[in-house]
Amino acid sequence: MKNYILPVLVLCTLSVVAQPSPSSETKSTDPATITKEFLNAVRGHDSKKATALLHPDVIWVQPGTNRLSGVKKSREEVQEMGKRMGELSDKSIELAEVRVLNANGNSVACLLRWKAVQPTGNVLDVENIDVYTIENGLIVSVKVYSADLEQENRFW
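Above: the chain's sequence. Below: its structure in token form.
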């Protein structure tokens, strides 16, 4: 009997060890998770990760009548808008708060608070509601609603 126990234990151990472990690189397609990852990347100034979560042909609608307003039709245009925000705010732009994040199907609505200060002393402190649409694990569209377009237009 003792002769059989050791080989059985070894086989059991090997079968457990040989099982593939779940990859930490497994990408979620859950809309809320994708949106959280994107916003965390934005907060952490990780433009590479944020850009990777955008579909190449993402549609981004930025409100207002300022130099950043309008419809962006690619991840490159969105990336350029982000760079321009950094330049215009002397790199002070920050996603200060993510207050609400709720999913409904493949759409996720977020209440966000943005802050920035220009070298001239002009201040941005505004809440936005952003609506993200996710398909196949990527953000395909974003529509931004500002709580204070007048402030944003003055700042940008």
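Residues 4-24 have pLDDT under 50 and may be disordered.
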